[in-house]
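Bench log, entry 3. Co-assembly request; chain sequences pasted below exactly as received.
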Amino acid sequence: MTRFRRQLLIGSFLLSLVSVLAVMVHWRFNRTLPNYAYLTGWVLFAAMTLLAVYNARKKIPFLPLGSSEAWMQIHVYAGFFTVVPFLIHLNFHVPAGWFEGTLAWLYVLVTASGIAGLILSRVLPRRLSTRGGEVIYEKIPAIRHDLRLQAEALALGAETKSPVIAEFYARQLSVFFAGPKNFWRHLLESRQPLNAVIVELEELRRYLNDQERAVLEKLAQLARRKDGLDYHHALQTALKLWLFIHVPLTYSLMIFSLVHIVLVYAFSGGAR
Amino acid sequence: MPPTPPIVERPQRWDAAFDPAMTDADVDRLLSIPPFSKMSPEKFPSRTPLREILRHDASIRRYRKGEIIVRQGDYGTSAFLILSGATRVVLKPDLPPSLLGRQAPVKKGIFRTLAQFWSDRRPPESFRRAQLRQDANVGARQNENEEVRVFLQDLPRVLDKHRTEEMTAGDVFGEIAALSRMPRTSTIFAASDTADLLEIRWQGLRDLMRFDNQLRQHIDQIYRARALASYLRATPMFRHLTKEQLDQVAAQIEFATYGDYDWSGEYKRLAQAGSVRPEKEPVIVQEGDYPNGVVLLRAGFARVSRKFGSGERTLNYIGAGQFFGLDEIAHNWRHPQQPVNVRYSLRAIGYTHLLIVPTRVMEQLVLPTLTAKELPPPVSLAADEPDVRAAERPNENVRDQVGGDVLEFLTENRFFNGTAAMVIDLDRCTRCDDCVRACASTHDNNPRFLRHGPSSGRLMIANACMHCADPVCMIGCPTGAIHRESFAGQVVINPVTCIGCKACYNHCPYDAIRMVDIRDETGEFMVGEDLKPISKATKCDLCVENHGGPACERACPHGALTRMNLNDLETLAQWMKR
Amino acid sequence: MSEQLPAPDFDSQNYERPNQKWICGHAAEGKPCRPGPSARGRCQATFECAPVLEKKEGEPKGRWRCTRPGGACETGPLPDGTCCRPIPKCSPLPTLRTRRGQFTLAVVTATVAALLILLGSPPLRTKFINPGELSTPHSSDAFAKRARSNQVDQTCGACHKAGALGPSGMTAAAFHASPGPLEIIKLAQARTAEMTAIDESCQRCHTGHVFHQPNVVRDISCSFCHAEHNGAGPIAATTDAHCGFCHGEADVMAAASLKGTTFPPDVFHVARGQNVFQAARPPGGFTNILARFAEHPEFRVHADKLRDSNTLKFNHALHVAGETIPKLPGGRGLDCAFCHQPEAAGVYFQRIRFENHCQVCHSLQFDPETPGLTLPHGNPEFVSAFLHSLPRQYADLAARSGMTRTEEQQRFAREKLERLQARVTTGEDLERRVFFSTATDGPETRLGSVSGGTHSLYPGCAYCHEVKSGAQHKAEITRPILFERWLPRGEFTHAKHSGVACAQCHPAATSKDTGDIILPTQRSCVSCHSASGGVSDSCATCHTYHKSPSARR
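Structure output for the full assembly:
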C-alpha cells in the first residue's frame, strides 16, 4: 500500500472514529450535562483555532514546528471533523438570529471553500503535469509578451511581406496573443480554443505560397505555446483563487466567533 | 605506409595552458632539477612530450609566508612540488574553519532564529557591512597576477597551537587528492618568507605517471600506503581477510581513471548541443568480455547498461563505494565448467576513479573467505532473460522500479550526483511557492533556489543545489569560500570570503548556483574599488544553520517536495510510489 | 519524446522571489529593473548606475566614474555626477498573493466595521444579536408590563443583565460571568441545580422552584430543561432526555425511592380538580427507569385491579347497548356523547349531572298517573318533605297546569291522593317504597310518558343509589362520587383523540358494574403512542413536570 493511500485510510478511519465517538458523547451528555452548548462551542472553537493556526505556521517556516505536510493532513481531517461539533453545537437547526445566522454561514463558506480547494489541489496539479509546459506563474506575463513579440515579428515583420498573414494576424491572432485567454474553457479541460485557432490557420493555408506557409507553421507553433501558457495560467490561477474566499472569510469567522463567545458569556445562562 | 605529414598536431587539451606565463626558461629550469632531470624524455610520445606537459600543465607559484597552499577539505585538481623554500603541513589539531576562510558550522541560536520574524523587511541580497568583514585571523590578498590568496595572519599563534611538520624542496604533495578526486586531507601553508612551488594539474600528473615508471611507482606507493589499506578494510567484501592477505590484495590492485576531470564543463557544452549519448562515454568494461576483475568505484559514477537493439539501455548507475563484476567472477569460480562473460557494460560518466581487483586475486584470496551466503547467486545461463533475474536483486536493476524514462532522464542530466537533490512531484505540487517562501525566510528574505528545472513526466529536479557526491563546483574556488560542511558534508558558500569569481557558477552543470549583486541595508548596490558591482555566488545550503532540516521540504503542504539522494534509486522508486 | 509540452524558455539567471510583495511593472515585458520595487510597492528605479567620485591626488575636483554593471557606458556620468541613463519609472504590480492580503485586510476591516455599527447602536444591536424569537408569553405585553413593575428593562434586559449594555459593557460582563470565559473546567464541573444568572431572572416571576415529587434527589435549574429564543408559541417542550436525566439513571432512582420512604404517603397525593381517583402509591414509589413509553408500567388502576368505589349503580353496557333503552326525545338513541359532554376546552368532560343526563329518562315520577309531578333530586330530606306535603304538591301541579281556582286545585289534589292511596297502604309505605324500592321488586307499572314516545320508570331511589336505613328508619342515601380524573399524574386531551371512537379505548359495552374502571390499558395507548404507531411517545406527551400552582403544598 502506498503512503498516500495509507494516510487516506488512517485519516478517514480516525476521522470516522472520532466523529462516531463525538456523536456517542453527544447522545450521552446531550441533555444531561449542564453548559453542554458551552462545551461543544469550546470544542468547535478549539478545532477552528487549530485550523486557523496553520496559516501562522506557514509564516514561520524557520521554527521546527513539524512539517507542513503533517499540518496539512491535520488541517484537512480536523476541518472535516469540525462539521460534527458544528452540527451538534447548532443542535441540527439553522440558527434563527441574524448574528448567529451570519456566523453559521461564514463557517459553511469557509468549510465549503476548503473542500473545494482540497479537490482543486488534488486534481489540477495532475492535469498540469500531464499537459506539460511547466512554468513559474510570475513568469507567465513575460513569456506571453515574448511570444507576442515573436508572433508579431513573424506576421507583421518586414521579412514576411505577406498581406494575408498580416491581415489575419491583426484581425484574429493579435487578440489571442494579447493576454490570458479562455480561463474557464481551460479549467474545464476544453481543447476548443486552440482548435479554433489552428482551424483558422489551416483555413488560411490555401491562400498562401510555400514561403508564407512556413511562416504559418511557425505561427501555429507559437499559438500552441501560447495556448499551453494560457492553460497553465488558468489552472495555476484557480489553484490560488480559492484562497481568496478561504483565507479572508476565516478571519471574519474567527472575529465573529470571538464576538459570539463574548456575547454568550455576557448573556450567560440559558444556552443548552 | 604513407609518409606522416609534417604537421605537429596540437593536442586539444592544451588549447588553454594551465599557466600562460610559463616560459621556456621556466621549463628549462624545471627540466634541470629532480625529479624531472631523472625522467627520460624519449619515453614520452610525440603527442605529449615531457616538455610540453610541463609547459602547459604546470605553473610556478610563489607563496608568501602564511599563505595557504592547500586547504583541508578542498577539492583540488593539482599536485604540488616544492621548488624552494619551506611549507608546513598542519597535523594536529586541525585548523578551525574560521582560519580557513570558512564558516564555523553553527546552528542558529534562539535570538537569530527569532530574528527571522522581521527579516522579510530587508531588501533582497542585502548585507550589513559588518557581515562582510573578514575574520581577524584570516586575510585575503591579491597578488600581482590578480590571484587571490588566503593567508594566516597570526602565524606564530598557529604554530604554537597546532602541531605542524615542515616540508622542503623536492617534496610532493596533493597528488592523491588530485588523482582520486578526494578532498584534501590536510592544510599546507608557506612557512618561509617566500616559497616557490610547481603546481601540476592532474592531466599533466596523469601523463607524467603514465610515461615515467618511477613517478608512478612513487605515487602508487604513497597511495597504497596512505589511502588504500584503510579503504579496503572498510569494504565488506574483504572483511574476512587477514592483514597479510589484505596487504597482498592492496599490492596487486590496479588503479584506473576514466573520463575528464572537468567533465562538468564538457558536459554542459554537450548537453546544450543535445548530444549526450551513452555510446560516447568511455567504456570501462565491455559487455561480453572476459571478466578481468571486480571494479570498485572509488570516486565518480559509472553507468551499467546493456545492448538493446542498436542502442544501449541503461539499467542502473553505480557510485562511489559500489562494485561491478563480482557476480560473473564468483560464478566462474564456482562453476568453472560453465564460464560466463560480463553481462553488462560499465561506462564512466564524467570522471571516474576506480580500483580493479584482478580475477586471479579474487579467486585466490578473496572468494574462498566468503561464506555461501555472502557470495552472489549463480548467473543464469539463459542469456535472454537477465532482466528477470536482475529484478530479484534490487540493486542491480532499478529500471523497472523507477521506470526507464526516469532512469534515462536522471542519467542524461547526471542527477545521480545529487545527495540532496530537490525532487518535486508535479502531480502533487500545487505551485503554491510555500517552499520558496520558506527558503527565503530562512535566508534573510532571499530564496536560494529556483522552483523550476528539468522535468520528466511528473518528476521535476528543481534548480537547487543537490549537494553532489562529486561537487565539481568546489574545484577551483580560489578562496575556499565554497566548501563542505565538516559535520554532514553539505556544500556551502561563505559569503564573506566569496569573491564573486563565478568559478563555481560556471562549473555547476545543474544551474544550482546563482550570482547575485549584493546591496547594503538601504537597498543600494554595493560597488567595489574597481567600480564594479560586488557579486556573490549563492545557492542552497540545505538550511545547515537551521533547526529542523531543509525548510523547503518541511514547508510543502502536499508532500510534493523532497530532498533526496538520487544515487539511491530505490528510495526514489519508493517515493514515486508513495 | 513525450506528448508533454516543453517548458517555455525564460530568464532563469535570477532567483524568482515570490516572497517579495511587489513585482516591477516592467517584468511583464521581461525587463524588470535591477533594483526592483520597494517592500511597500514603490518604484525604486532611478538610474542605471550610481557614479562614484574619484579623486586623485592633486586634482581639486575629481572625476565621476560610471559604475554600471556589465561595463561603463559610453557617455559616462553627467558633470554633476548623475548617471546619464535614467531607468523609466513603472508602477509596480502587487503579486496575486499580495492582492489576497489586501482583500483579506478589506474583508477584516469590513467585518469589524459592520460589527461595530451593528453592536454599537442599541436598536440594531437588539435585532442583530437576538438568537431567535421569544416564546409568546415572554414577548407579550403582560410580560413587558411585569418587567416594568420589576423595574428592569423591557427588552433583553428583562432577563439578561447585559441586555441593556453597550459593547464594552458586554465585554466586561462576559469576563465577570460565572463561570468565566477562561474557566472551561468549571463549565464541565457545573452542577445541574446551579441557578445561573438567567435562572434567577426566571424566578423573578416564576417564584419558587417547584418539583413534581418531594423525593427528587437531583435538583435541576430552570434553564437546564427550558430553552428560550426558539420561536413563538409556548416555550419549547422538554425532551425525554431531560426526564431520563433522572429516570434513566438507576442510582438516582434508587436514591429517590429511598428518600420517598421518609415522607408520609399522602404528600405524594395529587389533588388536581375535584374528584380524583387516588390509587395507592406503590411501595417503591413511581421511580421507574424508562427509556420509552412502551416500557411504561401498566396504569395502577389496571395493575392493581382497582375498582371504582362509586356507590351509584350504573350499568354502562345496558345504557350503551341495551335494547330496553327507549329513544330520547327527537328520536335520538342513547350514546356516550349524551352523558359525556366535553368541556369548553375539550380536554375532559363536563361533570355528569342528574338534571342534565339522567333526568330525561329517570324523571322521578313516583305517581304513575301523574306525569308532571316528580320527586326532587339531591337530598333525601327534601324528598321526605315533598312526600309529607303531597296535597300541596298536587295542588301546585294543578296550578302549574292551568287550574286557577283553588277549589279546582284542591279537588285535583284530593283525587290524586285518593288514587295514590289505592296503591299504597300508608304514607310510610309510600316513603319506604320511594326510597328503598328497586326496579326488580317495585310495582310493575308502566307509566305514561310526557311525549308519549318514551317511558319513564321510577322504581325507587335505591334503584340507582345506595340507600340505608338510618336512625328512626330514616332513609340515608350515600352520596355518590363520580370520579372525574382517573390518572391524575398524566394529562389527556380528549379533543385530540376525536378521531378515535370512545369504545376503542373504553370498553363500556361490556361493563355491567359500576366498579369496573373502563379506562384503556397502557398497551392500548402504546398501539398509537410509539415509534411504530407514529404518534408522539415522549414523557411530556402525558406528563407535566411541574406541579400546577394550585397543587403546591
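The first strand of chain B starts at residue 58 and ends at 64. Residues 399 and 474 of chain B are 31 Å apart (CA to CA).
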